[in-house]
Inverse folding.
C-alpha cells in the first residue's frame, strides 16, 4: 500500500501499556500521510492518539512499548528510513530534522531555567554544527518573526511568556530545521479561543508557504473539519475510518463517527441533541 | 524588595542567636556565676580572678536591670569584646577564634563542597540511568549516613592511621618539622594531615547528596520539557545535563543551606577525634574547661558563619533559578 | 525503493496475577521488608534480652576481656558485661528516639500546620520562628544549653534534641499544608462553616500522614545520632545507659588503643544498622508518596528480529 506521494507510512502499529493488566493502547493502526497534506487524527480522550504520535517518534517510555508494526519515512531525496529501527546517533539525526513535534500544553514543554533563545539554539548546534554563532542568532530571530513573536523574546524565559506566545515559540522551534512532517498533539487545546484562531491561522499559513505535512491530533472534530485534507477517526486504539474532510462531514460511514459529529453543539441547536436528549442514531446527512 | 526581606530575615536570625546566647545562662536557677563557681570548685580551688572575670562576662557585678545588661552585652559584641579565654588565659577570645577559623574553614569547607559536587554528579548519573552500578552504591551510602561521624572517624583512624600508618594520628600539620607559612612544605603537611578528617566528612555526607539528586532526577525526567528535548534529537548528555540536571539540582542547593547545621555538628566531632586545631576543637576545649567566654564567642562566630553561608546560597539560588527573579 | 522492512514478532510479556492481596504486596518492597525486620529485631532485643542478661553495671576484676562463653561480647575496662550493656543501652537509645520523635512531631505539626492553615500574621510569625530555629546551628546550641545544666536526665537531653530539631519538619509540613488548603474539598469545608480545628484534623492531617511518618522516622535517627554525639562530647545524659554513652565510655577507656574492639564496635554498629533500617523504612514511605521512585517492575520489551 505504498503511494509515491507519501511522506510517512505507518503499518500495523501496536502499542501496549504493560502492567498488572496489559492495555492495548494502539491496536493495529495503519496510516498514510502524503506530502504537504494535513491529516487530522480525531477521537475522544484516551483513544490512543497521543500514544500513537509518541510511538511514531520512538518517544514512548516504560511501561508503554511498541510491540509490532513498522513506520517508514519517505525522504524527499528518495530514500526510505525505517524509523523504528533507528537508534543512537542515527535516531538523533533523524529527529526534528525530518519530523518535528509540537506538544500538548506548552506550559511545561519549555525548559524553565534557560532562555527560549538557548533552546532554539540547541537545535542548530546539534543538527547544523557548521552554522556560526551569528548565523544561529539570525536564523532564530527569523523563526520568531515567522510566528509573529518579537525577536527580542529570544532572551526571555518560559515563565515570562504568555500561553499563546509559548505555543508560537514551540511552533517556531519545530520549524527550525525545515521538517517535512510536523506532528501536533493538541497544540491549541490549552489556549482561549481567540488565541486558538490566531495560532491555527499561523500554522496553515506556514504550511502553505513551506510545504510540510501535518498530523493534527485533537478531540475537536469540527476544528479538523475546517483545516484538514483528510481525517482519521480513532477509538479505543483502532482507526475506524479515514476519509477526506468532506466525506467525513457529509457522508460518514461509521456510526461512531456520526455520533462524534453530532455531539458537538451547533449554533442552531440541532446537533448536540444526542447529548441533551439521547435520541437514537439514524442516518443523518446535515 | 525581595532582597530586603531576605536581609531582614538574616538580621532577625542573628538577633535571635545573640539573644539566646545572652538568655540561656540566665534562665537557669540561681546566679550563673554561682553555679559556675560551684562547678569549678569541685575540680579544685578557684582562682581569685575567676569570680570577677565571670561577673564581668555575665554582667552580674552590676545591679542594673536585665535589659540594661543586655544592651551592655550587645555593645560589647559590636566592639569585638568577647572577653578573655580561661583555657588560653590570658589570650582574648577573639584571638583564639581567629587562629582556629582558617583550619575549620579549610577542612570543613573544602570537604563539604567536594562531597556535594561528587554526590550530585553521582546522583545525576544514578537518576538518569536506572540500574547501573551507581544504584548499588545507594545502600552503602545510606548505611554510612546512619553511622555516627565520630565512630566512623575513630574506625578510620584506627585502621588507616594507627594500624596501617598511612596517615598521621592527630594535629593539623607536623609541628615538629614544619612551621606555618606559605611554603610547599607547610602546605603539603597540611594536606597530609587533613586527608583523613576530610575523608571522614566526605564518606559520611555524600549519601545525602547522592540520594537527593537521584530522586529529583527521576522526578524531573518525567517532565514534558525533557521529552521535548529528546524529540529534538539532542544528544543524551545534553538532555541529561542542561535539561534534566539543571532543574533537578535546585532542591539540592536549597538543601545545602539547611545541611550546614549538620555539617557544623559533624565537623565539631570530627575535629575532636583527630585533634584538629579548628573551631570545633576549641569549642570542646572550652566545654571541658568551663571556659564560658570562649564558648559563647564560638557559638556566635559559628552562627554568623552559618548565617552568612546561608545568605550566599540564597543569593546564588536566585541566579540559577530565573523564576525567583521574577517575583518581587 | 530499498526495502528496510524488519520482521516484527510479539514478545513475551510479564503479567502479574490479579487478586485483592496484590495491593498490599505492592507495598512490600524489599526495602520495607529489610528495614522493618531490622527495626523489629532491634526493638525485641532491647525489650526482651535485658530480662535474661547480666547486670550491666556490675563491675568485676576481669578487666578488658575479649568475648567468651560467659561474656558474649566481652567486658569493659571495669569488667562490665558488654552484651548486657548493649541490651540495656538499646532500651535507653530507643527511649530517647521515641521521646524526641514524639516531641518533634507535635512541635513541627503545631508550628507547621496551624500557622500556615490559619494564614495571615500567624503564618508569618510561625514561619519566621521555624526558619530562625532552622538556621541557627544545632550542635553548638545544644552545647551551650547542655553545659549550663549540671545534671542531665534522659528527658532533658530529649528536650534539647527536640528543641533544636523540630524546625525542618515544620517547614516541610508548612509547604504541604499551603498547597492543600487551596484544594477544592478544603475550600468547600471552609465555606460550609466547618470549624478550623475540625478541618485541620479531618481534611488536612490524613493527607499529611506519609510526610509526618517520614519525619517521625527521621527524628528517631536524628535523636539517636545526636544523643551519641552529645555523649561523646561529654554532655550527654548522666547516669543512663544508651548506645551513645557506651561509645563515650569506650572512648574514654581507650578501648580502641587497647585493642578492645568488642567494646567499641558493637554500639556503633547497632546505631548504624538501626539507623539504616529506619532509613530503609523511610525510603519505602517516600516511594508511596512518589510512585515514580519505585523500581521498574516490568521487564523491558525488545523487538526481536528473526
Amino acid at each position: 500500500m505504498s503511494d509515491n506521494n507519501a511522506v510517512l507510512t505507518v503499518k500495523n502499529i501496536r502499542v501496549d501499556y504493560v502492567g498488572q493488566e496489559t492495555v492495548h493502547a494502539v491496536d493495529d493502526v495503519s496510516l498514510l500521510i502524503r506530502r504537504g497534506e494535513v491529516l487530522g487524527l480525531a477521537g475522544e480522550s484516551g483513544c490512543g492518539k497521543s500514544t500513537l504520535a509518541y510511538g511514531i517518534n520512538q518517544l514512548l517510555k516504560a511501561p508503554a512499548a511498541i510491540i509490532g508494526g513498522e513506520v517508514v519515512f519517505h525522504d524527499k531525496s528518495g530514500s526510505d528510513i525505517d524509523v523504528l529501527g533507528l537508534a543512537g546517533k542515527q535516531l538523533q539525526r533523524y529527529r526534528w530534522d525530518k519530523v518535528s513535534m509540537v506538544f500538548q500544553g506548552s506550559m511545561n514543554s519549555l525548559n524553565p531555567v534557560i532562555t527560549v533563545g538557548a533552546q532554539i539554539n540547541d537545535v542548530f548546534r546539534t543538527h547544523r554544527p557548521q552554522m556560526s554563532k551569528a548565523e544561529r542568532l539570525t536564523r532564530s530571530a527569523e523563526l520568531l518573526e515567522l510566528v509573529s513573536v518579537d525577536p527580542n523574546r529570544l532572551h526571555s524565559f518560559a515563565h515570562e511568556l504568555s500561553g499563546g506566545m509559548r505555543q508560537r515559540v514551540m511552533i517556531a522551534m519545530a520549524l527550525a530545521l525545515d521538517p517535512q512532517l510536523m506532528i501536533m498533539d493538541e497544540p491549541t487545546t490549552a489556549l482561549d479561543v481567540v488565541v486558538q484562531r490566531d495560532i491555527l491561522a499561523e500554522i496553515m499559513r506556514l504550511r502553505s508557504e513551506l510545504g510540510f505535512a501535518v498530523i493534527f491530533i485533537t478531540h475537536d472534530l469540527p476544528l479538523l473539519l475546517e483545516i484538514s485534507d483528510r481525517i482519521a477517526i480513532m477509538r479505543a486504539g483502532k482507526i475506524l475510518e479515514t476519509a477526506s474532510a468532506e466525506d467525513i462531514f457529509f457522508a460518514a460511514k461509521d456510526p461512531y463517527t456520526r455520533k462524534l459529529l453530532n455531539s458537538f453543539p451547533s449554533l442552531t441547536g440541532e446537533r448536540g441533541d444526542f447529548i441533551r436528549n439521547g435520541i437514537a442514531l439514524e442516518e443523518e446527512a446535515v | 524588595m525581595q532582597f530586603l526581606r531576605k536581609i531582614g530575615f538574616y538580621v532577625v536570625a542573628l538577633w535571635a542567636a545573640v539573644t539566646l546566647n545572652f538568655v540561656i545562662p540566665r534562665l537557669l536557677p540561681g546566679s550563673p556565676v554561682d553555679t559556675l563557681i560551684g562547678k569549678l570548685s569541685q575540680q579544685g580551688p578557684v582562682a581569685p580572678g575567676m569570680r570577677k572575670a565571670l561577673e564581668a562576662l555575665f554582667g552580674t557585678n552590676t545591679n542594673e536591670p536585665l535589659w540594661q545588661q543586655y544592651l551592655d552585652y550587645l555593645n560589647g559584641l559590636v566592639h569585638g569584646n568577647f572577653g578573655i579565654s580561661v583555657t588560653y588565659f590570658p589570650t582574648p577570645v577573639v584571638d583564639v577564634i581567629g587562629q582556629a577559623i582558617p583550619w575549620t574553614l579549610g577542612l570543613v569547607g573544602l570537604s563539604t563542597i567536594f562531597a556535594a559536587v561528587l554526590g550530585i554528579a553521582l546522583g545525576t548519573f544514578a537518576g538518569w540511568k536506572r540500574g547501573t552500578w551507581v544504584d548499588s552504591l545507594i545502600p552503602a551510602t545510606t548505611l554510612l549516613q546512619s553511622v555516627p561521624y565520630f565512630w566512623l572517624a575513630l574506625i578510620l583512624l584506627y585502621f588507616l592511621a594507627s594500624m596501617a600508618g598511612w596517615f598521621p594520628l592527630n594535629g593539623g600539620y607536623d609541628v615538629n618539622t614544619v612551621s606555618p607559612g606559605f611554603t610547599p612544605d607547610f602546605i603539603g603537611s597540611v594536606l597530609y594531615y587533613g586527608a583523613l578528617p576530610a575523608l571522614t566528612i566526605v564518606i559520611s555526607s555524600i549519601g545525602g547528596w547522592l540520594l537527593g539528586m537521584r530522586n529529583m532526577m527521576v522526578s524531573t525526567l518525567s517532565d514534558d520539557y525533557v521529552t521535548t528535548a529528546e524529540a529534538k534529537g539532542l544528544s543524551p548528555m545534553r538532555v541529561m545535563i542542561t535539561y534534566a540536571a539543571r532543574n533537578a539540582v535546585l532542591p539540592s542547593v536549597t538543601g545545602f543551606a539547611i545541611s550546614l547545621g549538620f555539617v557544623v555538628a559533624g565537623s565539631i566531632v570530627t575535629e575532636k577525634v583527630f585533634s584538629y586545631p579548628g573551631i570545633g576543637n576549641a569549642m570542646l576545649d572550652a566545654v571541658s574547661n568551663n571556659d564560658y567566654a570562649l564558648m559563647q564567642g564560638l557559638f556566635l562566630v559559628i552562627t554568623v558563619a552559618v548565617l552568612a553561608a546561608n545568605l550566599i546560597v540564597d543569593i546564588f539560588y536566585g541566579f540559577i533559578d530565573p523564576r525567583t527573579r521574577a517575583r518581587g | 525503493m530499498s526495502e528496510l522492512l524488519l520482521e516484527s514478532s510479539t514478545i513475551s510479556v510479564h503479567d502479574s496475577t490479579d487478586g485483592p492481596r496484590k495491593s498490599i504486596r505492592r507495598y512490600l518492597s524489599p526495602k520495607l521488608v529489610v528495614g522493618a525486620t531490622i527495626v523489629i529485631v532491634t526493638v525485641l532485643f532491647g525489650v526482651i534480652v535485658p530480662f535474661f542478661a547480666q547486670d550491666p553495671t556490675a563491675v568485676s576484676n576481669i578487666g578488658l576481656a575479649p568475648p567468651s562463653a560467659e561474656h558474649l561480647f566481652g567486658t569493659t575496662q571495669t569488667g562490665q558485661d558488654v552484651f548486657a550493656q548493649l541490651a540495656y543501652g538499646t532500651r535507653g537509645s530507643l527511649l530517647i528516639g521515641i521521646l524526641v520523635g514524639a516531641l518533634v512531631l507535635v512541635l513541627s505539626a503545631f508550628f507547621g500546620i496551624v500557622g500556615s492553615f490559619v494564614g495571615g500574621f500567624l503564618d508569618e510569625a510561625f514561619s519566621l520562628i521555624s526558619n530562625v530555629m532552622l538556621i541557627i546551628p544545632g550542635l553548638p546550641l545544644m552545647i551551650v544549653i547542655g553545659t549550663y545544666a549540671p545534671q542531665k536526665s534522659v528527658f532533658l537531653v530529649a528536650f534539647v534534641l527536640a528543641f533544636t530539631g523540630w524546625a525542618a519538619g515544620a517547614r516541610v509540613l508548612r509547604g504541604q499544608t499551603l498547597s492543600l488548603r487551596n484544594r477544592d474539598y478544603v475550600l468547600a469545608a471552609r465555606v460550609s462553616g466547618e470549624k478550623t480545628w475540625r478541618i485541620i484534623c479531618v481534611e488536612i492531617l490524613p493527607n499529611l500522614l506519609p510526610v509526618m511518618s517520614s519525619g517521625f522516622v527521621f527524628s528517631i535517627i536524628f535523636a539517636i545520632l545526636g544523643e551519641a554525639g552529645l555523649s561523646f562530647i561529654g554532655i550527654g545524659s548522666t547516669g543512663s545507659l544508651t548506645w551513645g554513652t557506651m561509645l563515650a565510655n569506650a572512648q574514654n577507656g581507650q578501648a580502641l588503643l587497647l585493642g578492645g574492639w568488642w567494646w567499641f564496635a558493637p554500639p556503633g554498629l547497632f546505631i548504624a544498622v538501626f539507623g539504616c533500617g529506619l532509613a530503609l523504612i523511610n525510603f519505602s514511605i517516600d516511594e508511596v508518596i512518589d510512585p515514580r521512585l519505585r523500581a521498574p517492575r516490568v521487564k523491558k520489551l525488545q523487538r526481536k528480529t528473526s
Observations:
- The first helix of chain B runs from residue 2 to 27.
- Residues 179 and 186 of chain B are 6 Å apart (CA to CA).
- Chain B has a mean pLDDT of 79.
